[in-house]
Structures are given as structure tokens and as C-alpha cells.
Amino acid sequence: MSTRASFIDRLARRWEQAGSLLCIGLDPDPARLPASLCDSPDAIYAFCREIVDATADLVCAFKPQFAYFASARAEAQLERLLAHLRERHPDVPVILDVKRGDIGATAEHYAREAFERYGADAVTLSPYMGRDSIEPFLAYADRGAFLLCRTSNPGGADLQMLDVGGEPLYQRVARLACGDWNRGGQLGLVVGATYPAELAAVRALVGDMPLLVPGIGAQGGDIAASVSAGQTSGGTGIVINSSRAILYAGDALDFAERAHAVARATRDEINRHRRGTTDAH
User: Fold this and answer.
1) What is the pLDDT of residues 53-102, one digit of tens each?
2) Is the pLDDT of residue 280 over 50?
3) Can 63 be counted among the known catalytic residues?
4) What is the rounded average pLDDT for all residues in the chain?
5) What does DSSP say about strands 238-242 and 22-26: parallel, antiparallel, or unpaired?
6) What is the DSSP secondary structure assignment for residue 131, as one 8-state letter?
7) Which of 77, 120, 73 is nearest to 100 (CA)?
């Protein structure tokens, strides 16, 4: 049995140690990598390694988006990247953004892939096949999972706002996630920064449960509104993700330094709106 601290405890410790609610999404698009890396056979790994080494002191988590690696046949580079993170930045949790959602043996294999092959600390999951689709991931007691709840894309309303017995479906998902589905205390929810009213409604429903909040930066979500709506009474509880605005802040040899500068500014802007925080670290 694992003796590691739980994902939720590790995340809470990182919020405190780093003084940051910022998560950087690692979405490496080969068409946007710096020219200096274009001829490298492991360009995706090299790019992401430089980004994480330049910004690790500023973040509460990193979130690699699996599809960007898989579409480029770069799964081996993703394995190397997560091994590098464990070796060089062991205190920074890694959320593997896979959005899996299946049942039975298939879900068990997806869980093995995320936690045993890649060594992720947490994953993103779709909850729409029910509790048995997430239970194989919760069998790893020291790992976590963020369930899609109210996503940042406009089309999310097609299903997530449907009335289900007097409440929208996203709120039903939130109630399930903080109730019977969360017996091991391993779950969080994905709620987009683009919908701060819904973010506030979810926070009211789930207490201090961690919320992964995508949608700032390139997607246009407002930082002040997101922090105000999503933070807990202690000024934590949210993992605010920014990807493209940080990753592609520069495309020359100093791309990692440019990413650091934008990440620092983003972290500081988030901290300006946190309860109990008067200055950025």
C-alpha cells in the first residue's frame, strides 16, 4: 500500500508552500514550438521541460493535456516529462488532463495508464457514465480525480444546464461528487472561469472541495471574478489553469524566461484577489 500523502493533502500543502493558485497547462502544439527546437526529435519534451523548470516555483500544479502528446506520437516524451517532474519538482502535483469516462475493465486500464504508466497525481474524468466509471481511479487511494462539472466551453450548456429534478445537471454532478461518490475524499470538480456565477454556485454546494478552473488567458475568463467566486474562506480551494497565454509568451531562445514572466504576473494577479493575501510571494 502506498505511504504517500493523498493528492488532496499534497495540493493543499502546495497552495501553502508556493503561495500560488496558478496551474500551468502543458499543451505543446508542434506548430507553435520555438524555431530553436524544431529539428529536435524530442522537441515536445524539451519545450515542456524548459517551461516547467522556469515556472515550477510559481505554480500549485502542472496539467499536461494528453491529446497534445498523443496526436504527435509523443507519449514516450510525456512519460519522460512526468519522470522529470517527479525527480526535479516532486512537491508540484501533476494533473493529467485525459477526460476519460468508461466502465469496467476499460476504466481500470485507463486508471493504470494514468497512475502507473505516467505516474500522474490526479486525472480529469467525465462523470456521465456514473459512479462505476470513476471507481477504478479511486482505487488508488493516494491519487485524485477532477470530474467535469460546468465546463468553460459555450457548448457545455447543451447538457450541463438541463433541468434535472429542479436543478441544473451540473449542480447534480456537484452534489454527487461531494457526497456518496467521494467516500475516500479524492474528488474535485472542473468548473470554468468563463462562468463565475456557476462557479460560485458550485462552491456553495461543495464546501472546501478543490475546483480546477480552466478558462483564463486565451479563453477570456476573468481572474478577479473567478477568484472571488471560487476561493474558500481561507483563500485557497482553486486550481486556476492557464495554458497558451503562458506557454507561447515568447518564441525565441528566451521562450522559457518569457513564460516565467507571464506566469509570475498571472500568479500575482490571482493573489491580489485572494482572501488573506496582501502581497504576491
Assistant:
1) 999 999 999 999 999 999 999 999 999 999 999 999 999 999 999 999 99
2) no
3) no
4) 94
5) parallel
6) G
7) 120
DSSP per-residue string spanning 43-106: HHHHHHHHHHHHHGGG-SEEEEBHHHHHTTT-HHHHHHHHHHHHHH-TTS-BEEEEEE---HHH
Around Cβ 153, how many Cβ atoms within 10 Å? Answer: 13
Q: Is the pLDDT of residue 275 over 90?
A: no
Q: Greater confidence, 84 or 277?
A: 84
HSE-CB for 232 with a 13 A CA cutoff: 14
The pLDDT tens digits of the residues spanning 130-163 come to 999 999 999 999 999 999 999 989 899 999 999 9
Helix (H, G, I), strand (E, B) or coil at 150: strand
User: From CA 15, how far away is CA 55, in angstroms rounded?
Assistant: 15
The catalytic residue among 13, 80, 99, 244 is: 99
Residue that the C-alpha cell 491529446 belongs to: 67
Q: What are phi and psi of 30, to 5 degrees?
A: -55, -30
Cell of residue 223, nine digits:
481572474
Q: How far apart are CA 274 and CA 281, in angstroms?
A: 13
* CA 243 to each of CA 97, 102, 129, 130, 214: distance values in angstroms, whole numbers, following the listed order: 12, 27, 28, 29, 9
3-state secondary structure of 228: helix
- Helix or strand holding residue 11 (H, E): helix 7-18
Tell if the pTM clears 0.85, that is, is over it: yes
